[in-house]
Write the C-alpha cells for this entry.
Amino acid sequence: MLAAAIFLGSASIAYAASAQTGNIYISPDEIVSGNLFVAGEILTIDGSVSGDVIAAAQKIIISGRVDGDIIAVAQEIIINGDVGGNVRIAGSTLQINGNVARNVNSFGSAISFGPNSRVGWDVYLAGENVNINGVIDGGLSGYAQKVIISGKIGKSVNLAQDIKQSSTSFIIAPTAIINGDLSYEATKEAEISSQASVAGEIKQIVPLVEKSNDWLVWAWKELFVIFSALVVGLAIIYIGKNITIKILTNMEDNPLKISLPGLALFLALPPLALIIAFSVIGIPLSIITISLWMILIYIGKIFSALVMGRLLLSKVGKVAGDKLIWPLVIGVLLIWLLAAIPYFGWLVSLSAAIFGIGGLWNYVYRERQNI
C-alpha cells in the first residue's frame, strides 16, 4: 500500500514497543527520558515519562506518571496516573481519574472526572455528557449538553448549552461544592440540590428563541478537526522526519509537476474501487482502495499544510530547513480554517489534497527508481 510504503523503514520514534502490532506498552519499571511521540492502535503507559506525551491512537490508557503535558487524540482516553503539566485531549470517551497539576482541555462525547481526580488549575471542555465527580481547584467552563456536578469546584462555573435541548440537563448534586459563581446558559432551569453548596451568585442566562448556538457547535467541531490534524502531523514528523523533509523539498521545488500525478490518483482511485467491487476480487479490496484514497487525502492535506507553513515562515526568515513544528501549526491552522469557508473552502481542501497526494506519489516513485 502507498501510505505504508511511504514510511517503510523510517526513522525511529522516541519509544515504540510492539510497533509491529500497533500496540505501545510502557511497563511499570520503565522510564522514558524526554518526550514521547507515538501513533498506534493501543497505547498503555504504566511507567513514567519525564517529558510530554503526544499521541494518536484508538485507545490510550495512562496509569503511570507523566511529568510534562499530555496532548492526545483517541476514541477512548483514560488517565489514571499523575500529570505534572496540562492535559489537552480529544476523543469519544474521555476519563480522568488521576491528578493533573495544571489545566485540562477536553473535547469529546462523554467526559468524566472520577471521584479521585484532581485538577490544579482550570478545566475547559466541550462535550455531550459531562460528569464532574472530583476536585477542580480552578474554574470550570465550556459547552455541554448534559452535565452533572457532584464534586468540588474551587472557583466559578460557566457553562453553555444548545437551546434545542428541551430537558433539564444541568444537575448540581447534593455533594457538589462550588466556591464561586454558577452561571449557565440554558432554556431550562438547572436542577440544584438544596444540599449543594454554591458560594457565589447563581445565574441562568436564557438564550433568545431566535438565537442559535450552531456557530458554537461549528467552532468546537473545527477546533477538534484542527487538533486532530496537528496530532497526526506530529506523529508523521516524529515517525519519519527525514522522509517528511525529502517529500516537502520535492513539493517545494516542483509544485506543478507534483500536482499532476496527485490529480490523476485523486480521480482514478474511486472508479477503480468501483470496478474492483464488480470483479472476481470483490468488495473487500474495493473497500481497502477507498480507505487508502481517504487516507491519502487526509495525509496529503497535512503535507500541503507543512509546505504552506514553511513558505510563510521562510518569508519572514523564521524557519530552518529541518524545523517542522511551527510550519505544521501555522499551515494546518491556515488550510483547515480556509477550508471551512462556505462556497470557497472545498476548493482549498481539494487543492491541498491533490498537491499532497502528488508529493507522496513522487517520493514513492523516486524511491522505486533507486532500488
